[in-house]
Amino acid sequence: METKILSTSEYDIALAGKILSDGGLVAFPTETVYGLGADALNEEAVKNIYLAKGRPSDNPLIVHIAEKEDIFPLVKEITPKAQALIDKFFPAPLTIILPKSSKIGNTVSGGLDTVAIRMPQNKTARALIKAAGTPIAAPSANTSGLPSPTKAKHVIDDMSGKIDAIINGEDCEFGVESTVITLATETPTILRPGAITKEMLEAVIGKVEVAAAVLNGMKKDEVAASPGMKYKHYAPKARVMLVNASKEIYESFVNSKKDAFALCFEDDNITIPKITFGKENDDISQAKELFDALRQLDKMGAEKVYARIPHKDGVGMAVYNRLIRAAAFCIIDLEKPFTIGLTGQTGAGKGYVGKYLKELGFNILDTDLYARKVTEKNSPYLSILADNFGKDIIENGILNRQLLADRAFADKESTELLNSIMHPAIIELCKKDAEFPSVLDAPLLFECKGNEQCCKTIAVIAPEETRRKRIMERDGITAKQAEARMNAQKSEAFYKANSDFTVINDGRDIKTQINRILEEIL
Ligand code: TXA
Ligand code: MG
Question: Is the CB of 30 under 6 A from ligand 1?
Fold first, then answer.
């Protein structure tokens, strides 16, 4: 199919309107992103939208209208809250979901009994809908899964040869898709954040909720309030990771990376290849540039991208929502130095799990080894120990371990004092060596508060019988001695209650369990 490239002249808009009313597909600019339009009341035409985009058929489309009163035939009724939003905002980057009328076919609404309606602000868009003389169903004019188009050239890249015409208009003013709010639930709920913010909506209709999936993604078996939530979105070919860190820490982290790109703010000092998306404290500029930036990364052949995290307030919520999906929810939290905290009962198989994580490329920080480093010759921590347990525990820069043990384990208070020195010191040393992705391997993870420095924690547990056998074999001790060691440990319930994930070593395959956990963490 040859795709006509049209201008925004009156003549061309009339022509595009005719293509639409004849059942064709036309891409056009709006103030949010470019839309791919078809006559919303023509089921055959609407089906072609799904084909051109490669869009799953259960993901409904937004119906665009030219005037406020055009909404009446399309919905069952206008509730007072809907009327208030229409009066205050339309035309706007805002989409309202209401129960649909019988005029709306099943293809447009993806089989749902509601319909999404929007009256765009953009002049060309409004003129086009008028010229077509019918409501226009229009999703974003990108190939399904790719970043939405904010420039005519993005649409030309994605849709040439697949649709009848593209209106070659201006760059989009906002750059992220409209706010989608459903009024078909008891409390109005934002299903997709956009330029009309929660605060702006609440000022008009009172309490508004934000669907949990907007910021956190969907749980495994959750049913999507908006089908769009469950699909992969806005994703460039590159693997994008969000980096939660201050400007300075982000800069030094990213500048040390090889073969990677930075997706950063304009004023960041970056020495590796970079693409920027707006200014640090200016969410409007970030929204406007984000999708173009994602597309540029692909053009440059980026494979690995470290992105700065935007704040989540106001329009920032929309930017964060799009970016976190582009990153498939992968956040590197540099405010937390360890990706995973690994712990477990003695004999449960923590060592085996650690080995497997190492094979997978994790950087393992074993606290047992670091405990030795804290007390090795000339360690700066020795003088702290000496200040607390007596100068004579150090001779020629070497720690007299027996003497320290005698004093530290003499009573509970002294033991606690030793722990309060050793635990933070061990974590401090591990932190220095931690390279993403890292595992803090610590038998006393929770007791030494190491878990507070980890993105997620995994505890390995196993039935008593299995552990007893293992400890006896591993350490060559009797059942009674093994029992004593096990009794000194925290219970299975403790590990279950404190960790994010548990690996159960009772014959079930451990690697499968780990792989499943990693899928969720990364
Ligand atoms: O800014 C925009 O809204 C752009 C421009 C072209 O107007 N359009 C757009 O459409 O972003 P689209 O199809 O890419 O996104 C529509 C979103 C999807 O996530 C879809 O699942 C949701 O709205 N949606 C549509 N109808 C719905 C309904 N009845 N119930 C729940 N979600 C709905
Ligand atoms: Mg879209």
Answer: yes
